[in-house]
Specification:
Blueprint: E1 12-16, H1 22-31, E2 35-39, E3 50-53, H2 58-67, H3 71-79, E4 84-87, H4 89-94, E5 95-99, E6 111-116, E7 126-131, E8 140-145, E9 149-153, E10 158-162, E11 172-177, E12 180-183, H5 194-205
Parallel strand pairs: 1-2, 1-3, 3-4, 4-12, 5-6
Antiparallel strand pairs: 6-9, 7-8, 10-11, 11-12
The structure holds glutamine.
Amino acid sequence: MPPVHDPQPPLVVGVLAVQGDVREHVRVLTALGAQPRTVRRPGELAGIQGLVIPGGESTTMDKLVRAFDLLDPLRDAIAGGLPVYGSCAGMIMLADRIVDQRADQQTLGGLDITVRRNAFGRQVDSFEEDIAFDGLVDPLHAVFIRAPWVEEVGKDVTVLARVEHGSAAGRIVAVRQGALLATSFHPEVTGDTRVHGLFVEMCRAG
Ligand code: GLN
């Protein structure tokens, strides 16, 4: 048999692995044919073509990013145009502004948005809903876990999805600005690979 030539070399996508649901993102990226690489040290950013910042707890992630000397290297990577996808706490890490942040909480920034942490309140802090997502044909099953929402977007930010039902209807829960993508919800836990698929395309294009 002639050798099979994969026309595209494997895409190396980092997953920030200081805290949060790293394994789930690694699994989805692998399923999509990308080569995930966990990132805990500045040197591990070299050679990646994209980065996922998982869900977890943004206050803890912020502390660990600083403790691991990753704050400036990550900010530099974002400023340099590295495609980054942040899910839930990852969205908070990418936001330029937070409402209700913990004292001294910092973000990496890059996305011209204001997010509200734990925005859906105590009663409904975790819920699931099918929502339309710009660029995807069929609705997406979105899982929200103590999720933020986006209160304000800058003029260069594209809104990709909003909550459709209940008292939070209309709230923005997915955005893109250039090479940065963020969702309030967790596509990595549903078995639906389409959001990561969009991100992988962004990485290949980037
Ligand atoms: N509430 C968390 C925070 O503020 C985010 C929750 C999540 O990532 N599932 O960071």
